[in-house]
Amino acid sequence: MSFAHPLLALGALAGALPIVVHLIDRRRARSQPFAALDFLLRSRRSNARRLRLKRLLLLALRMIALVALPLALARPHFARAGSGPGALATRGPAATVLVIDGSGSMRYRLSGSSLFERARRLARARLADLSAEDSVSVSLCAPREPAPPVPSFDHSGARELLDRLRPSEEPGDLSSCAAQAAGALAGSQLPRRRIVVFTDGTGADWDLSRPPPTVQTAHGALRPEIEVVDAARAKLPNRAITDLSIRRAPEVGDHAYRFDFTVRSFSDAPARNVDVSLRSAGQVLARGFCDLPAEGAIRKSLAASFPPGQISVGEVALSPDDLSDDDARAFVLDVPRRSHALLVDGAPSPLRFDDEAYFLATALEAGGSGIGTRTIDPDALTPSDFDLADAVFILNVRALRPEVAAALSRFVRGGGGLFVSMGDRIDPEALGQSLGELLPMTPRVIKTAAPPPHLSRGEASGEENGLTDETPAHFSRVDAASPLFAPFSGTAGAGLTDVRIYRYVLVEPSGRPARVLASYEDGAPALVEAEEGKGRVFLFTSSVAREWSDWPIRTSFVPMMQEIARELSRSGEGRIEGVTLVGRSHELSSPPGMTPVSATSPSGKEQPLVRLPSGGIGLSAVPEAGVWRIRAKADGKVEDAPPLAFAAAFDPRESDTRRLAPGEIEARLGISPPPGIVEGDPGHRDVPLWTSLLEVVAVAFLLEGILLR
Predict the structure, then answer these.
(1) What is the pTM of this model?
(2) Based on CB atoms within 10 Å of each CB, which residue in 149, 315, 566, 596 is the most buried?
């Protein structure tokens, strides 16, 4: 047995004080016979033995308290030998690095406290057990944390540093941290080197394929003693949302989105009726339940509609468990506003299949697109009709009245969108004179690639089936860089290249900048785009009805027309922000005239932005899961920029709380003697006696009080 403070053990001599006091206070009484009291004395003799025993017990309890208290202050302890590396403690003082696992899985709560707190308590106990001759340093194993310093004899400084440590939400790398600890031990002059890792026993943060850490010394490489202290000592059942994808859900309604996500179980027991919900703005928009198999996963889907024209933030969440960080996945959804398209129908008809605007109006409103249409005849068109429109479609119109054409020009230059298509009622020369200052190219003559089919009530003649000698034209070359053609990559492009064009208008450059987005086999432009003031203009040289092409009945017609309408109205599809895992970098895509300045974390901490290796601005590593808000500078003012907000998610690797099998770490690391995963008690450690002595003191005072009553 040894003492941490040997001089305080001398205080145990105070245990003799009650005996000394007893002997000094002992007095002999003079006998004085008195007949009247003789009877009373005889009656009390039977109680004398009991009173004497009580006094002896009080004397013993007081002696025990006075002996145990100074011995407890001296902190005696026994050295218990074992098979672990700590059994070598008798060789002399050691340099020790205490490595605390700060990865996301250490945020798991067990019996009311997190695994990180449990690990820190174990580290405090280990630090208290070190002798004054042992040097020590403390290291938090988390991304971007500094490497541990060379162990020193400043135990109080190590204790203060230990108290300041906080867990991370990011994955850790305990193998690298052990190697860094070995590097810190290389600077110590003590003969023994020791690394103590306090972790939860899960395998997500270990790279066991790496070689064991070694300490480089003047005499060569030395393997340090390694102890892995288990802060959990129990199974860690967990369930988590491991991914999330968002897509439009037109079958549900306008501005509706479907959220598809995976719920995974990391437990050996099934879970039933697990609550899942879709929340936004403090409200539950959709809810469901799921049954999870043991060590399994299921795919779940929830859908809801969101307010148009604004940014919605929310989360898909499970009923909370002991690791709450992975029970929810946040999202940021930029829902487009509802746009309004004005269709100017140059060939109206009571038969809907013969009406010029029928197919286009049907396509624009299909599938909950969020695009509203209004159809009007050219003769009824007035300048005020443009006030409520985001985009105007001029369909097979011969010409516009001068005052309407002037109003349309002001509409486009002010930021509106214009789409012009041809047809059997147009006069290229008259159309050029009416809209010449807006059209990207000047229309000249009508070309017939093949006789158009004769349509009546939606039925086609045999000419549409290729029974003539002439071949219809097709879209040959498209500008793949244009977002209009993004839906037609791969096999989906057949819906565009199979379109048959029977007639189209030949156009020539007008001298203004224009971009040909699609052309026919002969090189003639099919779809042309140009900027006009703040607005945009699209010119389609054929028809959007059935008289000149069969495009309206092709699968590419609906997505193409909707995409054109969104481009013209500048409403877009809305932004569905992709997920960013904690620990990864995030680059911000800011619109022109807006410069991001800082980011605010979900917990409210402001973090400056940096220049990334790609050249963009953003965060080099996102440290927290949740919705991040961005402040940006625009027009000389720094304000919140909701369009730049993004969501970060907990890394699924840290959700895997399945523990390593006993002995797996020592087997993989190949260290001899094996370190073992020690359940809060390494292979050798000093067994403290002072806590038991304090308990003895407390019991002694308690019994003394009972005897004195």
Answers:
(1) 0.65
(2) 566
